[in-house]
Amino acid sequence: MDIALGELADAPDRGEYAVTVGVSNGEGAPGFPYRFAVRVEGFFELMSDEPNEERKRLTVINGASMLYGIIREQLLSLSTRHRNGPLLLPSLDFRGLKERPKGKQEEQKPTNPEKLKRRRKKTEQ
């Protein structure tokens, strides 16, 4: 599993972030009937007076929890009628998730704010 946090290019200190969660089982395990790789990106805005680092931490924990739940539900839905039966990923607790040390953190490219605006308009319609 990989989790990445990116700040929107035009909003580095406004509490708007893109969180990406990826889950896969690689090449699959012998005898395991499923092979999958899923990556989901979500846009989050955290309105808080907390310092920027705390806002990032809260966004990663809550954003990853929501996105992982979406992945879990979609894999279950897609596999429900499969001949090998449904695939349900285990539930996870992201509260213990901590930021990696500065040198080891994967940086995500800033998300285009116009892309975010278009997505917001689609969901509002």
Write the layout of secondary structure elements.
Layout: E1 2-7, E2 16-24, E3 37-45, H1 52-79, H2 113-124
Antiparallel strand pairs: 1-2, 2-3
Describe the structure.
It is a single chain. The protein has 125 residues and is of the alpha+beta class. The protein has a single domain (2-124), classed as Bacterial Protein-export protein SecB (Roll), CATH 3.10.420. The chain is built from two helices and three strands; from the N terminus they run E-E-E-H-H. The chain has helices at residues 52-79, 113-124, and strands at 2-7, 16-24, 37-45. The chain has a three-stranded antiparallel beta sheet, with helices on one face. The longest helix has 28 residues, at 52-79. It starts with a strand and ends with a helix. The relative contact order is 0.20. The model is unreliable at 101-111 (pLDDT under 50).
The side-by-side strand order for the widest beta sheet comes to 1-2-3
Report the C-alpha radius of gyration, rounded.
Answer: 17 Å
Which percent band covers the strand fraction?
A: 15-25%
Give the tally of β-strands.
3
CATH architecture label name: Roll
N-to-C order of helices and strands: EEEHH
CATH topology (level 3) name: Bacterial Protein-export protein SecB
CATH class, named Alpha Beta
Structural class by helix and strand composition: alpha+beta
Largest sheet geometry: 3 strands, antiparallel
What's the domain count? 1
Helix content: 25-40%
Which runs of at least 5 residues are low in confidence (pLDDT < 50)? 101-111
- Overall pLDDT level: 80
